[in-house]
Amino acid sequence: MTLTEKLLARAAGKTSVQAGDNIWAKADVLMTHDVCGPGTIGVFKREFGKTAKVWDKNRVVIIPDHYIFTADSLSNRNVDILRDFACEQGLPYFYDVIDDPKGHWVFDASKGNMKRQYGSNYAGVCHTALPAKGHTRPGEVLFGTDSHTCMAGAFNQFATGIGNTDAGFVMGTGRLLIKVPETMRFRLEGKLQPGVMAKDIILHVIGEIGFDGATYRAMQFDGPGIASLSMDDRMTIANMAIEAGGKNAIFEFDARTAEYVEARTRLNGTIQKYDPVFADKNQSFVYDLTLNLDLLEPTVACHPDPGQRKKAKELSNIKLDRAYVGSCTGGKTSDFVEFARVLRGRRVVIDTFGVPATPEIVRDLQSTRWGDKTIWQILEDAGVRMTENAGCSACLGGPVDTFGRMNQAGLKCISATNRNFPGRMGHKESQVFLASPATVAASAITGNVTDPREYFTN
Ligand code: SF4
After folding, report:
1. What is the pLDDT of residues 57-93, one digit of tens each?
2. Is the pLDDT of residue 458 over 80?
């Protein structure tokens, strides 16, 4: 069996499964957020009753993160609905925007959108926060009401996005009927060269198979090239499985996975026991691609979909209006480190926005010093508009007052985010070019799409 088949067999209480089998999978964690949480709660109450209790309060994790720093009152109200539910159910893992359990969330537009407006429990973007808060363990099943839930596959999990109806059912029963996906294998060999990042790996892979090339399939990443990839790198890759239509992504378990998971579960007092899955000798794949990381070059997905692959060096004629680094995919500490490595001592020539994925990343960037400056200061000195209000922000457009949103037709943005279908970051006639944080930085310096490798020569 493949990694995904082994994991799902265990979740179904069976000795084996094969692709195409329909199984009842036991959930280890259900995650929801401010956009889908209210709908999920509505389904749960309608189907299980107004006074029903969730199947396991320690396994429901609620993370408001999407439409948070906006004066849109309906968006603010969604956070209040989550708070009321968490209070009613006694949920220990609700990462509220404010500290008052009886309060109401209201964004104060008069304070602007750069200075921190959240309390001490706020966790930021759900997919980055889940592992950081110790909710991600190898060998487990994670269902989440968000398509990029697949990011947790970096941790040797079966993690997939589900709709509100399914999530309402999981909330009540802890189980879900799913079909075992076929597995596509991506075997990584070699090592990334300076200026080339994990984002380039996944953009290359999606370009190879197309934005629907993995529809309802597991994307398994293994091989000797995995060892050199950090957990942040693996998260970037797994996150974008859905951009090829993948049901899930999954990585092999190794010492790096163990180190991250054990540190984070210990730090947060969450469940520490876990049981990874390992590959069988005989695995059956519907597709098998070997990728030599040494040969990979900075890659861009052009408007209007993540499969429109080009090398960055082929796009120097594309003039840009703005640059954006942020999101679950591209707003981690390591992403900002590479971004700052290129921008240090230089200036951007187009509007450039930086949105850390979580408050912890804000703290990392504001406390890590390179010489006499923090990374945060280096980015601000380069002209990047850095916000402390960690969250999804303009990755998915959001209400019109969202930080970094593309509100005008015709704007072209190079972005470290994960999705570029028309209208994704705002105006439906704007264009998004997906790239690594290093490529975004190099492009922000020149104003055109730029291969970042020349900035990594010394
Ligand atoms: S940062 Fe973007 S991709 Fe990630 S969860 Fe938020 S909206 Fe979705």
Report:
1. 999 999 999 999 999 999 999 999 999 999 999 999 9
2. no
CA triplet 109, 110, 111: central angle to 5 degrees? Answer: 90
CA gap 34, 47 in Å, rounded = 20
Q: Are 325 and 335 in contact (CB under 8 A)?
A: yes
Measured from the CB, is residue 239 less than 6 Å from ligand 1? no
Top mutation candidate among 95, 235, 418, 434 for ligand 1, by most atoms within 8 Å of CB: 418
Interval 243-247 mean pLDDT: 98
Tokens of 13: 């209480």
- 144-174 pLDDT, tens digit each: 999 999 999 999 999 999 999 999 999 999 9
Domain end marker among 245, 272, 296: 296
Nearest to 150 by CA among 249, 290, 64, 38: 249
Residue 439: give its domain's CATH number.
3.30.499.10
